[in-house]
Amino acid sequence: MIPVLNATQIKSVDQYTIEEGATSSAALMERASEAFVECFQTIVPKTSRIMVFCGVGNNGGDGMAISRLLHDREYDVISYYIGDLQKATEDFRVNMERSSGIFPIKQIKDYDHIPFIPNDYVIIDALLGSGLSRPLEGLIEKLVNTINDSWAQIFSVDIPSGIFSDNTSDGATIIADHTISFEIPKLSLFQPELAGQVGRWHLVGIGLSKEFISLQKTNYFYTERKDIKLPKRAKNAHKGDAGRMLLISGSKGKMGATVLSAKAAMRTGAGLLFVHAPCCGLDVLQTAVPEAMVIEDEHTEVITEILPADNIRVVAIGPGIGTGSLTVKAFKGLLDKVKDPIVIDADAINILAENRELLDVLPAGSVLTPHPGEFKRLVGEWKDDFEKLELLRNLCKTYKLNVVLKGAHSAVCDYHGIVYFNPTGNPGMATAGSGDVLTGVIAALMAQGLKSFDALKTGVYLHGLAGDLAEVKKGQYSLIASDIIDFLPEAFLKLTN
């Protein structure tokens, strides 16, 4: 996992690397610029024409170095800088001198000097970096708006200009297609409200001190593939060893949610799956998921009484159950019976929101999987995504819960209030039933012996990875929840190989 640090910490890591690594700030900037260019080259062909916009700070210094390195690699480059050279940083001056006379460099002195941007150019935004603390105004705000108004593809260096690292940005910001960040993720890059400005995010190493980074205190991390734990199976394992799981799901007209959760659970490796559903779901389930054993509720259309089967390792509840009074009573009765962590999704979360006293009796370590609307019903309104993260952390710590707040870079929070941002998934997964699939995946991993938080983090990663593999074959617009299930086997193979 990679620590997500604030702007002050990032500055201290840079300084430590320079002082203890016997290197200069200019040499570190050169490494960062080379890393940017290596990533950039994998996306942008050499036939492209490049405009680089630089401030006169260190982000602009990166931009000047990047311009030179791209020119060396035979790209057609022109650079612009904006700002007072008398206030420029030393590293900007060094890189401007190194670039002088090699390719065109022009100053933007006033509004009339803002260049026309042809649609076929690629823009590199190196105006302002992660230390920004006030909104843009005046000439640079006009430049940012001009860049955004063009049809050019935009790459931001480290962070889109105008975005603050650690809190909400109120003013104009670059709307990037790609952001190539250096070594340490910034918290703002994971906020849903800024996803449109960040675009596709890339992280490149630049040789910062990993030891010093590991010493920094933070409540936020970025999950890596190596952090993912899969259940282990003995050679002589039988279906009981792979876990007995109970899924409580469905009501009349919503049995599709149950089918999706049940299929996902089986594809994720649950050894024995019991599904408690209303009578109306019997034929649907035994046809669509023949591997599952169905426990019929006494009611035809809704769930009214839950009697867990013997030796169940994990219970999951919520997809499609509705929030009627009979089902609420059944949910309360379930909570009186279970002692181990359970998985709670969809309508079961809505029941919690309407009956908040139930939060106090949830088994410690239980897993909740709300989307933003369900989360808002649980915790109330928030002013921005940063406050939303604090509400997530407080919910987990107060009630000893593990919660994933679903969305781009889903925020997976443990009951200590530590948040892990998930790297997998894509916008095509914003489709009906995707959350029902996730419920089945997480519960199946718990059934196979993973602790609840490990199952949550692994399940979110695996679910997103299956979605990414489905996107390659199906595209974002045509992707449906069933596709995620279909690609779970390939996701497992990718992880195990």
Summarize the structure in words.
It is a single chain. The protein is of the alpha/beta class. The chain folds into two domains: 217 residues, YjeF N-terminal domain (Rossmann fold); 270 residues, Ribokinase (UDP-N-acetylmuramoyl-L-alanine:D-glutamate ligase). Helices cover 39% and strands 15% of the residues. It has 17 helices and 18 strands. An eleven-stranded mixed beta sheet has the order 1-9-18-17-16-15-14-13-10-11-12, with helices on both faces. Strands 4-3-2-5-6-7-8 form a seven-stranded parallel beta sheet, with helices on one face. It is elongated, with a radius of gyration of 26 Å. It starts with a strand and ends with a helix.
Low-confidence stretches: none
Q: What is the beta-strand fraction?
A: 5-15%
- The level-1 CATH class of the largest domain: Alpha Beta
CATH superfamily of the largest domain: Ribokinase
- Per CATH, the architecture of the largest domain is 3-Layer(aba) Sandwich
Helix coverage percent: 25-40%
Largest sheet: 11 strands, mixed
According to CATH, what is the topology of the largest domain?
UDP-N-acetylmuramoyl-L-alanine:D-glutamate ligase
Mean pLDDT: 94
- Order of strands, main sheet, comes to 1-9-18-17-16-15-14-13-10-11-12
